[in-house]
Amino acid sequence: MDVDQFRMLGHELVEWIAAYRERLEELPVMSRVEPGEVAAQLPAEPPQQGEGLGDIVADLERVVLPGITHWNHPGWFAYFPSNSDLASVLADLVASGLGPQGMSWQTSPAATEVEDVVMEWLRQMIGLPESFTGVIHDSASTATFTALLCARERTTGFGQNRGGLQAEEAPLVVYASDQAHSSIPKAALLAGFGAEHLRLVPTDDEHALRADLLEKAVAEDRAAGHRPCAVVAATGTTATTALDPVGRVADVAERHGLWLHVDAALAGTAMICPEFRWMWEGAERADSIVFNPHKWMGPGFDLSAYYVRDPEHLVRVMSTDPSYLRTAQDGLVRNLRDWGIPLGRRFRALKLWFVIREHGVQGLQARIRRDVANAQWLEEQVDAAGEWERLAPVPLQTVCLRHAPGALAGDETALDAHNLAVVDAVNRSGQSYLTSAVVKGVRMIRVSIGAERTERRHVEAVWQALCEAAAAAR
Ligand code: PLP
Fold this sequence. Notes:
The chain is of the alpha/beta class. The chain has helices spanning 3-23, 56-64, 86-98, 109-125, 140-155, 183-190, 211-223, 246-256, 293-296, 311-318, 349-384, 412-429, 456-473; strands at 76-77, 133-137, 172-177, 198-201, 227-234, 259-263, 288-291, 304-308, 388-390, 398-403, 433-439, 442-448. A 7-stranded mixed beta sheet has the order 2-8-7-6-5-3-4, sandwiched between helices. Strand 5 (227-234), helix 8 and strand 6 form a beta-alpha-beta unit. It binds pyridoxal-5'-phosphate.
């Protein structure tokens, strides 16, 4: 493609994205295609000769758009918000247009230095002490994996430089709550701890980790000759946004020399508002913290913020030093390839830079406060309605509920099926999209508020849709 064609098509595609965002509300939130329907519209074999992009807009409309579930739709209440602010869309375009690969400072100094600055801005924005240094990872899963690798190496005194875990005399143990995100067991398994050395500590009635049981589990492991290594505390679990008592977990971690990693994937964004920071009190004592601006804040997927208290340790675990990567500035700058797993790095920092500049801290705070207020409004409706149960506290933007008509009282199987039918009916309407989860054997409908364009009227509409679907399904 020459630059003139790019210019023409680029304008057309930017216009198409703008028009898509304008008409989002008219589209069904959840894609209605059947499995295989999108693929069936594409040739099974690649074109042998370049065919040009032709009428790409028509193809996007015909093939791609029907197969899109619209995460930026104001009726998005599924899983968790994953906003892609239009400023971030432009930043992604610029990042691709410039095409730098920021593995070393020298390979594009701006990619490293913009990241240095925006991660420092973000640290200030979420109220972390200056002792933390941040780096961008693709996802919380990768950041948590990195954290457990660092924990492993601290406990073993850099066993990776000897026989690794295979040469350790006593097994190392990782702790998290029974509500921890699946990325935590996954990271523990991938980091070689083994399923037998992962303890999922029971949670209380509000689904928060019980620090007393954590202490007990650590003591039992010690008595058995195991080596407690790391604990992951959640600020905002995935299913219910439960808040583990980070301060009390930090007490246990400090007493027993555990690495403390805080997973605030969704909730970290709320820390931009000082009034929510009590939720992770104690996080300043963590060894590492991850949160996902790509969820609630605005930079589109993928952009995860990873903060550590001891960057030298991280770099010592992660760095490699082959001759072909050495540069003259190595002692003077951050080479971000040494701050994570992949060598190559996209210029993700541009997305944060654009979004923070576009909205300012106050603009972002206002949106978070709006979403939390909307969740509180819904919480009040649920609490006041007959036959509806709220199944978890609502500290943030997720309301967990179920419809429990008297006729089904005590019949968990029937309640499960009834609530699944309610979710299905709402989703099929196309106006809103909800997902459910089973927590401690109870099926809950989750209303996860926080799409950028979701206003009170959309929350009112989903509540009305839930009530109507529940009445129809009984
Ligand atoms: N931790 C929590 C609490 C989450 O809710 C999620 C995603 O929903 C993750 C981790 C994983 O995030 P990522 O997709 O960035 O790996």
